[in-house]
């Protein structure tokens, strides 16, 4: 244990900025955009905008609490303090379980991406190598985690900016005059080819591209000068969404008829290929591989901190609350990483068959985390009003926007029941909540 028995504040502002930005950019954008385009057509950019605005509001709620109390465990700690023991227990273990599944899915993705270059390399070997390397990195200190995440996020961001710039270059250099060079936005069934219903279904799908963005709240316990760095990181979430999601989709939809995007290759490969870069597929594969490793890195980090926070509240075994001399929750890292070894075994026995299974189970947990943040914030602000306490980073439009977010997230559950492959996640929700309740009762015997 370090001298203060606390996590060390080793994350600088540039680390937090990239962690927040990297959390909003993952394989959902790089590979998942084709399915959302099929649902909404050119209006997919509107789906990302609406979803992004709602996520920004939720992040502002989390930010207000994190600046007021920058602790490890984040919204699980706040849920326990301002809502009750079971909501805190539920949110902490739900978040941990969600990220275990996400990390398993990302390890599986790593194996798939590596086979692009090494077709004979078994998926489980690539997954195991990634697991060992990232676990070792996290065991050293939080600064190394932040530094690694900084550079991996930078690769993702550079790739997206490059794709946007190349796309704009193609549009501006088009032999067609304005506005004909943008006619793909309305020429194939209109801007909303599948109507409002198609847009609504697309919103339900794109919300899971934002999963992990709440990681910025988990970092609060190890952020240098959290009063300054957390508001900066969160306030920049909205323009990042506008540039990296809405901007990318706008360029893609203007470049090609929406029905053709992603059918023969990834939408992003099409941009590279169109400007004569023969290594387009290799460049994209490197970027998505980096994105998958980045998410796994963040998953191990956040899971170990969540276990540390749960142990501090006596909601997890006490041994998980111990720190190394460098202020690192080593046991939480090893437990979280060790459980993802199941993924290596699954990839050995069922290669190529578990990625979507893992993601379909994990997706619903993200909305539980967001709902917990919104409701806990209502309780937090009520407590502040009752005690006359002023906060430093107020969430806008309280409480109206809280109720709007609750209605929005519940509607996402309803829409998911209408999408094949996502409906399973909604149907297992009651069973999952029951398991958490049983675990809570057992822990409180």
UniProtKB/TrEMBL annotation:
Subcellular location: Cell inner membrane
Residues in Amino acid permease/ SLC12A domain copies: 15-444
Keyword vocabulary terms for this entry: Amino-acid transport, Cell inner membrane, Cell membrane, Membrane, Transmembrane, Transmembrane helix, Transport
Gene Ontology annotations of biological process type: amino acid transport; transmembrane transport
Lineage top rank: taxon: Bacteria
PANTHER family registered for this protein in UniProt: AROMATIC AMINO ACID TRANSPORT PROTEIN AROP, GABA PERMEASE
Protein name (database record): Aromatic amino acid transport protein AroP
């Amino acid at each position: 244990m370090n001298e203060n028995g606390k996590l060390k504040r080793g994350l600088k502002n540039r680390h937090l900025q990239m962690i927040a930005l990297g959390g909003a950019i993952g394989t959902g954008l790089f590979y998942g955009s084709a399915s959302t385009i099929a649902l909404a057509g050119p209006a997919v950019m509107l789906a990302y905008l609406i979803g992004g605005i709602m996520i920004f509001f939720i992040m502002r709620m989390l930010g207000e609490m994190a600046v007021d109390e920058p602790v490890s465990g984040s919204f699980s700690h706040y849920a326990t303090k301002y809502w009750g023991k079971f909501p805190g227990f539920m949110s902490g273990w739900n978040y941990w379980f969600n990220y275990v599944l996400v990390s398993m899915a990302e390890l599986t993705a790593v194996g798939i991406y590596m086979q692009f270059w090494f077709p004979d390399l078994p998926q489980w070997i690539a997954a195991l190598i990634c697991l060992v390397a990232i676990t070792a990195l996290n065991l050293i200190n939080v600064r190394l985690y932040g530094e690694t995440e900084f550079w991996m996020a930078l690769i993702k961001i550079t790739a997206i900016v490059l794709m946007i710039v190349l796309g704009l270059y193609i549009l501006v250099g088009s032999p067609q005059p304005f506005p004909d060079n943008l006619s793909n936005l309305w020429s194939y069934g209109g801007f909303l080819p599948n109507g409002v219903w198609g847009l609504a279904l697309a919103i339900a799908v794109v919300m899971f591209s934002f999963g992990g963005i709440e990681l910025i709240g988990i970092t609060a316990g190890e952020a240098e000068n959290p009063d300054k760095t957390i508001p900066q990181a969160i306030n920049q979430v909205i323009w990042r969404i506008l540039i990296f999601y809405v901007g990318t989709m706008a360029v893609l939809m203007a470049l090609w008829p929406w029905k053709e995007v992603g059918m023969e290759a990834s939408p992003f490969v099409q941009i590279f290929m169109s400007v004569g870069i023969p290594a387009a597929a290799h460049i994209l594969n490197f970027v998505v591989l980096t994105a998958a490793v980045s998410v796994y890195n963040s998953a191990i980090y956040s899971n170990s901190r969540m276990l540390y926070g749960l142990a501090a509240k006596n909601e997890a075994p006490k041994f998980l609350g111990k720190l190394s001399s460098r202020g690192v929750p080593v046991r939480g890292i090893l437990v979280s990483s060790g459980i993802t070894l199941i993924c290596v075994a699954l990839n050995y026995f069922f290669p190529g068959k578990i990625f979507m299974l893992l993601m379909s189970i994990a997706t619903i947990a993200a909305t539980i985390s967001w709902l917990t943040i919104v409701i806990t914030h209502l309780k937090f602000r009520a407590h502040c009003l009752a005690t006359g306490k002023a906060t430093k980073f107020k969430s806008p439009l309280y409480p109206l926007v809280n109720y709007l977010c609750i209605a929005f997230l519940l509607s996402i559950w309803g829409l998911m029941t209408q999408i094949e492959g996502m409906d399973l996640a909604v149907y297992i929700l009651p069973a999952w909540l029951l398991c958490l309740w049983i675990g809570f009762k057992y822990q409180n015997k």
